[in-house]
Amino acid sequence: MADPYATLGVARGASEADIKKAYRKLAKELHPDRNKDNPKAAERFSQVTQAYDLLTDKDKRARFDRGEIDGDGNPTAPFGFGGGGGGGSAGFRPGATQFDFGGDVGGMEDIFEGLFGQRTSRGGGFASGFGFNRAPKPKGANVAYRLQVPFVDAAALKPQRITLADGATIDLKLPAGVESGTQMRLAGKGQPGPGGNGDAIVTIEVQPHRFFTRDGDDVRLDLPITLNEAILGGKVRAPTVDGAVNLTIAKGSSSGKVLRLKGKGFHKKGGGRGDQLVTLMIDIPADDPALTQFVESWSAGGNPRSKLGV
Which CATH superfamily includes the segment(s) 138-208? Predict the structure, then answer.
């Protein structure tokens, strides 16, 4: 695989936020649903997802930056220890057919013991070949999936069923704090390879709702109420992500008043849940003669804008 930084089009010192932003942009452009007539897009989409997976893993990113692993996460060749040609440092001389150990031939065994791990039982020598730390066989490629999750299901963490490329179906348990862009790894559900199957990388996309909106871990709702309910108060039914509940409206409530329903929001990563914030919206009939006659004869409204200086 190519350099994951180049694959995502970010600099090596890019922040996690920059990496996430670049991935979302590319994933949106290359998603198979938008490129049904372009088979190369699916391959590119998988490469972008694999690059994002490596760079968002702090340990793997650090190892890649140090040159210990390649873009596929496999160990690099062990012969990168060569330095300059002076002193007692080990190196490989251009044009030479053997390693130069700085004249200290006796130290050769120590160097190879550090590289390849152990001696044989006979005569203190090394086992033939350099197979002690041989790089593992590569696994198959990861396969990228995008799963659209209904807003209410994401808030309530309802299990989601996904069908994989081989026709198998899996019920996924959504993690707390799930949001659009959250990735879930299904070990061994990718393409086969010499070292075993790759993984399936599932990217979550939370669908918008027709009347709920998300505000961090909270859920917001504009709730219409009648003029009677606002003036006289009472109990009204209000929807939540967990089902409808009875909500108490205080007498004399105005449009814009916010009521809080504890624990009716999204599940938090650290435990617990957010709340549902209900904004009351008084619904005034467009053409009601009785209401018009009452208002025309009512003169106790005052000036509700006086605090604004107008």
Answer: Urease metallochaperone UreE, N-terminal domain (2.60.260.20)
